[in-house]
Amino acid sequence: MKTAIATVSISGDLREKLAAIAAAGFDGIEIFENDFLAFDGGPREVGQMVRDHGLEIALFQPFRDFEGMPEPQRARAFDRAERKFDLMGELGTDLVLVCSNVSPISLGGIDRAADDFRELGERAAKRGIRVGYEALAWGKHVSDHRDAWEIVRRADHPNVGLILDSFHTLAKKIDPETIRSIPGDRIFFIQLADAPKIDMDLLYWSRHFRNMPGEGDLDVAGFMRAVAATGYDGVLSLEIFNDQFRGGSPKAISVDGHRSLVYLMDQVRRAEPDIRIPVPDMPDRIPVHGVEFAEFAADETEGAELGGLLHTLGFRRAGRHIAKDVELWRQGAINIVINTEREGFAHSSYVVHGANVCDIGLKVEDASATVERARALGANFFDQPAGPGELKIPAIRGVGGGIVHFIDEKSDLARVWEIEFEPATDDDKPADAGLTRIDHVAQTMNYEEMLTWVLFYTSIFTTEKSPMVDVVDPAGLVRSQVIESEDGSLRITLNGVENRRTLAGHFLAESFGSSVQHLALATDDIFATATALRAKGFQPLVISPNYYDDLDARFGLEEDFLSRLRDNNILYDRDGNGEYFQLYSPNYGEGFFFEIVERRNGYRGYGAANAQFRTAAQKRQMRPKGMPRV
User: Fold this and answer.
1) How far apart are CA 288 and CA 364, in angstroms?
2) What angle do CA 402, 21, 272 make, to 5 degrees?
3) Residue 59: beta bridge partners?
């Protein structure tokens, strides 16, 4: 089964698009007529340029307002088709997409449409061309693939077949199982697109909000399972109309597209084991059991500052690397690594971003299988020479340029802290503050990159995505979406920035794209933790007293309980029976911070209602530009 992508799906001129599509691993393209018309070369030159990139033109599209036209428009429609056939011959492609008529003067009737396509098929056959008919969800008379199939069936011509588009079927809530009854050899082409569920006009929804399979909310996998059951073995192509994609990196969008198709077909293969699905063999999605470590890149001065902050949070310096300037700080099951090496990846990350979380280690069932699956899905392997006594820990490059390492229990990887670190001999080993594990990792990125991150995590790991929500910042909105495992052992919040005046936007701008903005650390008793932290000299983020007055009005809390929250600068949220408590550190650098959380009675959220009050407090605390860090 070959893969393709419509040129309209990505940004750039035609040369840029072809280079990105080829580099991502696609076999071909759908050439969108406007991309050809905007190009300054002739059709033969375009066709040769496509082939020089190792691609084929799998489809020419779109041909509009054809079937059911009254005279003289009918005759002109056939004349237009003949001219497009001439163009296709010069381009070197043999399949054209004809979309269902939307003209207000078009006439209905399945037999009338079938007669038109039978005649078009005769004309196409003389040129060695095939005609594919697609039902637009907003077509005037034909807006359902079942009606389009009936027209193709009645046309009964070998050069006329059906084109199916997942968006047009799923957006109208047509049961994709109806596809199973269509003979696979009568389906000429498959177009795929996902989309978020939005209640709006179908045409506007389609033209602005489509995204890659797996990035939205439509059942594209169910659609593709039905297609596979027909025996279809032709091209699978992406046709994505999306405002963000049109302004994004053609290389990144192309990589996402290819990853989405491989992931989709892997899902179909596992759901339909009796159907042969040609897709790269790879392990199934990998279960994750939490965050094993977070590694900071820093210089000696900032590393010492960070160590001081960790000390006030109840961490102790538990080890020093056997050969590198790397320290291990530990509390409960939380491992924080501070890397002040002057060479290697961490140093390069520091040079670009300043002090930042450059590496996340995940606890997985099988580290080697994780890398194998990630590479099959287009992720880049990360390799750095290991010194004497060091382990080779499997790793890949994450979306934002950081590294993701994988630790499992099947090998010595689980003993990395014993093997690579010598115990620290500090006299000052404070009792911990009751922090137990990393509750979640919050990553910040430009909004237009969010879908890339979502696809990266959900295609590799056994995780699901939550609906996107708007998080209020006093300077604007931040779009937030959660990726988490079913048991909550891995939680990642993705925060998309559109406004650089927000706290997240400031962090992104000042750290030159550094992604991890905060780590949330779990405790079983936030009040006991707050007391312990105070004794260690920890200075929490100060929350406005007005917040607590409003909290009382919203929840009707007992006075003693409310006072304890206020006295400890703890924020509170409730969801059904579940309760959530949040305590924040001051900002570190240009907006990084630690969060301490307690979840009670199954609370699954992230305190989004508190975000605007927390960010307001953080902005008050931020040092003016040019002032030294304290």
Assistant:
1) 5
2) 85
3) 30
Residue 491 contacts by C-beta under 8 Å, 6 or more apart in sequence? 439, 440, 441, 482, 483, 484, 485, 520
Structure tokens at 237: 């192509």
Closest C-alpha to 6, from 165, 120, 140: 165
* Residue 473, SS3 per DSSP: strand
Within 8 A by CB and 6+ apart from 588, the residues are 305, 306, 309, 355, 594
Return d(Cα 199, Cα 211) in angstroms, integer. 16
Residue 91 tokens read as 């381009």
Structure tokens at 96: 């054209």
Q: Please say if the pLDDT value at position 95 is more than 90.
A: yes
Say whether pLDDT at 627 is over 70: no
Distance CA 382, CA 394 (A): 8
List, for residues 188-199, the tens digit of each pLDDT value. Answer: 999 999 999 999
CA–CA separation, 231 and 347 (whole Å):
52
- Burial of residue 123 (CB within 10 Å: 0-12, 13-18, 19+) is middle
Token code pair at residue 161: 């077949």
Q: Which domains does the chain have, with CATH numbers?
A: 3-271 (3.20.20.150), 288-423 (3.10.180.10), 435-621 (3.10.180.10)
3-state secondary structure 556-609: CCCHHHHHHHHHCCCEEEEECCEEEEEEECCCECCCEEEEEEEEECCCCCCCHH
Strand order in the sheet with 288-297: 395-397, 403-407, 356-364, 288-297, 334-339, 326-331, 316-321, 421-423
Asked whether 236 and 59 are in contact (CB, 8 A), the reply is no
Looking at residue 9, its amino acid is S
Q: How far is CA 312 from CA 309, 317, 338, 525, in A?
A: 5, 12, 16, 17
Mean pLDDT of all residues in the chain?
94
Secondary structure of residue 7 in the 3-state scheme: helix
b/e code 350-389 from CB counts within 10 Å (16+ = b): beebbbbbbbbbbbbbbbebbbbbbebbbbeebeeeeeee
Cis peptide, bond prior to residue 43, ω within 30 of zero: no
If residue 437 lies in a helix (H) or strand (E), which one and from where to where? strand 435-446
Q: Residue 370 is which amino acid?
A: T
Written as one letter, the residue type at 328 is L
- Rounded distance between C-alpha atoms, residue 375 and residue 143, angstroms: 40
- On the question of pLDDT at 281 being above 80, the answer is yes
